[in-house]
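Technical note accompanying the year-one report. For the benefit of new consortium partners, we illustrate the data format agreed upon in the data management plan: each record pairs a sequence with a structure-token string. No post-processing was applied to the example shown here.
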Amino acid sequence: MVSSLPESSFPAEADATSIARSLSIELGDLSESSFTEDALWRDTFALTGTLRTFYTPAKIISVWRTVCSRRQATSFVLSPEKAKATRIGESHCWIDVPFTFQTTLDPATTASGTISIVLGADGEWKVWVLKTILEQLAGEPNVDELEPTDHAPNGDANGDQESGEFDVVIIGGGQAGLSAGGRMKSLRISYVVIDKNENVGDSWKLRYNSARLHTCRQYSHLPFNRTFPSTYQEWLTKDDLAQGYQDWVKRYGIKIWLSTSLISGKYDEGSKKWTLEIIRNKQQQTLTCSHVILAVGSGGRNPIIPQYLNKELFEGTALHSSQYTDAVGFKGKHGVVIGTANTAHDIAEDMLDAGLTSVTMVQRSPTYVLPYEYHQRVQSRLYNDQVSVEVADRASFSTPIAITRQLALAGMHAAARAEPERFDALEKGGFKLERYGDIIYYIYVRMGGHYMDVGASKKIAQGQIKMKTNSLPVEYTTDGVRCENGDVLPADLLVFATGFETNMKRDVRRYFGDVADRADDFWGVDEEGEILGAFKPTGHPGLWYHGGVLGHARFYSRFIALSIRAILNGTPFPVYDQNGYGA
């Protein structure tokens, strides 16, 4: 992956539109000389049928010519009037010029893209980044539009009580499952979302009372509309999210079966159908479908809990964060939180607010702390009341992760360097700090493990929340935990904020057995910087992973739906993977 932003500049008064109009770049006839030496191209299903990022002019041109020929790409049209300049300091400058094109080989599509051009030392404008995005399937409804319904389908929570046969069954009714369901409905695909909870939004509603998003409201919508208008607060609580999801399901008549769990499933190679055994309202039922989308959260929300010796001795309350509600009944007592990521900080702060005598966080290794205002400053440039969510998503999620990483590092680290005293105080409070962390690593590789500071760091710096960093717990006592060095932490309430399994492939094994042998892993990044497994063909026919943060759920659901619609039409997208085109 690239290690830096381009070293290029041009006068501040330069007009981006005029520059774009003067370009001699022909997208239908690109050559290696069209690109900078460190150029890269990210394709989001438009030409490769999957997610790919290519590096170096030679590789880009080789693949570009192959896939454009195979897909019969044509009608490339630049839109210079929409060109925009971006400046990161004085030496990192480029101009983004959008374009559109079509593919005429079945499945015929419309697509969009952007070229990011930089001014070279020789005075020539060259392409630094090329981005292409699948937009729509020709002859099909718009995957980005769904008309509200004035009535819900028959059945509990918009579910059809009779039919047991669908094109698609979506396992999980959180943000990923709902987004996928909405996209299926927009393309007139027969589907059902099944969720083990009793109510829409319970994936958030049942979390600890102080749970809230650490990203801004405008980033947090489900597809088709702004799910959370300005009447909602900027930092959405779990109850806000649950209410927004319920309203969205009613507004669009999403077919969801609640109190429904998957038991097991089998895939028949001959019929290319899944047979799923489910429990619905305490009764077993069989479903058949062509496609299964796993949207159960990372690892199906299976908690990771460290094991300490002598648990039977402990007279207090020990539980995982997934079981934690609040600390109201522990006023005047001692609380210990194992972990130092987002949830750990939220719970420690909640304990403090509940009046516990002492609150201690146990930290194993340095934690990246990202003040929320740093993140909001960057995120709000795209996600705001003036820019549509669809436009913001395309700008955000079509960019190669390598470039997104460099932009994030530049912005976040500059902000951190500007106020060192903030982080000095946190370290003086005993916190082991990663001051200049890599947020892209924490999102795309670790899937968490950082803290978006919404207030708890100040309480650590002030000593209200204590830190234990020099030795980890190894065994329980009657009234706390003993660490390796012999120190005892008093604890009436012990909460493990230690995360969850992150690989959904474990759930494939759990539900579908040997199907997992052909399925890819879920999450992390490959050598191109693409997310493993998610949103694209998984290696097993008819099996899809969907997950990630709200933006991932909203944006990438459209490509799962478009891919499935093409398969159901009998004209699947040819996939150009690491081995090229298959047979």
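Partners are asked to follow this layout when depositing records. The longest strand covers residues 125-137.
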